[in-house]
Amino acid sequence: MPEPARWYHLQGEEQHGPIALAEIRELVLAGTVSPGTYVWADGMPDWLLAREVPAITPPAHLREELTAWR
C-alpha cells in the first residue's frame, strides 16, 4: 500500500508541511488555509490554489459557514 500523500501550503513566502490530508483539511476549517492559499501534495505537477483542489475543498454544507469559501 502506498504512503499517503504529504501536503504542503504556503503562508506568504513560507512553506509549511509535510502534513497529512486530514491535517490540511483541519487547517481549511480553521481558516488557516483559505481558497487563495497555494497548496501542493506528492504527485501534483505544480502548486495550485486551495479552491482548485477538490480533496481539500470543504463540502457544500460547510462552505456556507466558511465565509472565505463562498
Provide key terms for this protein.
4 strands, four-stranded antiparallel sheet, alpha+beta, 70 residues
Instruction: Report low-confidence residues grouped into runs of 5 or more.
Output: none
Q: What value does the average pLDDT take?
A: 91
Strands of the widest sheet, in order across it, are 2-1-3-4
Largest sheet: 4 strands, antiparallel
Give the terminus-to-terminus CA distance.
36 Å
Shape descriptor reads: globular
Kindly give the count of domains: 1
Instruction: Count every beta strand, where a strand is a DSSP E run of 2 or more residues.
Output: 4
Could you estimate the helical fraction of the residues in percent? 10-25%
Please indicate the percent range of residues in DSSP E strands (runs of 2 or more): 15-25%
N to C succession of SSEs = EEHEEH
- Rg from alpha-carbon coordinates: 12 Å
By secondary-structure content and strand pairing, the structural class works out as alpha+beta
- The tally of helices reads 2
What does this structure look like?
The chain is an alpha+beta fold. The chain has one domain (7-69). The protein has 2 helices and 4 strands, in the order E-E-H-E-E-H. The chain has helices at 21-30, 60-63, and strands spanning 7-11, 14-19, 38-41, 48-49. A 4-stranded antiparallel beta sheet has the order 2-1-3-4. The chain is globular. The N and C termini lie far apart (36 Å).
What is this structure, in a nutshell?
By secondary structure, the protein is α+β, with helices and mostly antiparallel strands.
